[in-house]
Amino acid sequence: MTVESTAARTPRRSAGTKAGTTGTKRTTSTTKKATAARKNTGKSTEPALVQLLTPEGKRVKNAEFDPYVDGITAEELRGLYRDMVLTRRFDAEATSLQRQGELGLWASLLGQEAAQIGSGRALRDDDYVFPTYREHGVAWCRGVDPTNLLGMFRGVNNGGWDPNGNNFHLYTIVIGSQTLHATGYAMGITKDGADSAVIAYFGDGASSQGDVAEAFTFSAVYNAPVVFFCQNNQWAISEPTEKQSRVPLYQRAQGFGFPGVRVDGNDVLANLAVTKWALERARAGEGPTLVEAFTYRMGAHTTSDDPTRYRGDEERLAWEAKDPILRLRRYLEASNHADEGFFAELEAESEALGKRVREAVRAMPDPDHFAIFENVYADGHALVDEERAQFAAYQASFADEDGGK
Ligand SMILES: Cc1ncc(C[n+]2csc(CCOP(=O)(O)OP(=O)(O)O)c2C)c(N)n1
Ligand SMILES: [Mg+2]
Questions:
Q1: N vs C: which end of the chain shows fewer Cβ within 10 Å?
Q2: Closest atom, ligand 1, to C-alpha of 236
Q3: Which pTM was predicted?
């Protein structure tokens, strides 16, 4: 039996159902779609992707996933395009701000706009998102003001937004850990009897973490309403995906007993459709789904990284031809869903966003240098007091040096 045919088995999700941990029942329609999605994996070494828009911007039919985007209006399509363009513009501004010394670090999402906007726009307001540190497009979809994403990267705060304000958790740097947080949160939703869902974002590198395997196990046996959204951008800093897995990542799901599907990560419509399907499964009590968005990190891992040391230009050039923004633009133009006026207006809006972000970052107040000693212990601690005093002395030493100036 090949790996692919094993993947087509019905996911085992009875444990949670039997234990009465699910408040909703399964629907046969979503189960059929799940089976069809797994069939789509094909038998070749490079599995088929769910794709609704080709790199040339041609709409391709997909019987299983078309129903999730069939009713989409021209205005909604323009909205997806606007989301991607503004996210990219914001991201470019942040990279420039780091180069100008205004940010300590930046993790660019360049190339991953479709995966993030497509999945982000599939969510309902009452769903909850657990991101990594690169989910600027998802943050945008959740209504988090982009300037709030920058405080942590400037080193002036520890997060920058109220996670419960937009059901968007703080950025998580500890690779893979948020998949466990998401699973626990999803198990809680089930106990509450709600029909909202959770989505956990993580990368190809994170898929090797023990936390992710544990999250898969728990979510499967407790039938938790969680979507694991893996952006396979081909690289984990300098390590290629071949160093993470001997099978395509979406196939990992089969061993845990839930479906996995690979989607063209640069196709915003496909990401929207597949994520809607996976969320529908979660809401219907069918448990977790693994979505592997096959995409590419066009830029460096972060501004501290130099990718020319470990990968060639050819790879990047090949992926530039699959640019997520360009393909939707081609589709919008070919189908007369957007005119020159729309693109010109968006260009002006992008520039205004860049300016707003620049000005907001430069105006961020410096934090109180002693704030780091607060919130360690509720009632204080002798060791923290000692460290605070040491730090005060250290700072005072600079004042002495500058004293004569
Ligand atoms: C537990 C843990 N181990 C190591 C690191 C260092 N680290 C930061 S990013 C990264 C690679 C992550 O790659 P991937 O999951 O593919 O996400 P991407 O950065 O490509 O979006 C590593 C190893 C970390 N932050 N946390
Ligand atoms: Mg990666």
A1: C
A2: 13
A3: 0.88
222 part of the active site? no
Tell me: the pLDDT tens digits for 196-223?
999 999 999 999 999 999 999 999 999 9
Tens digit of pLDDT for each residue in 236-276? Answer: 999 999 999 999 999 999 999 999 999 999 999 999 999 99
Q: Whose CA is nearest to atom 3 of ligand 1?
A: 175
Task: Kindly report the CATH class assigned to 3-362.
Answer: alpha beta
Q: Which is nearest to 2 in space by CA: 247, 243, 217?
A: 247
Contact (CB, 8 A) for 133 and 202 = no
Q: What is the pLDDT of residues 39-70, one digit of tens each?
A: 444 344 567 899 999 999 999 999 999 999 99
Q: Cβ distance 293 to 266 under 8 Å?
A: no
The structural domains of the chain, with segments of one domain joined by +, span 3-362, 375-402
Is 337 an annotated catalytic residue? no
The catalytic residue among 296, 301, 327, 331 is 301
- Rounded distance, CA 183 to CA 181, Å? 5
Shortest-distance Cα residue to atom 11 of ligand 1 = 236
Q: Is 237 in the pocket of ligand 1 (CB under 6 A)?
A: yes
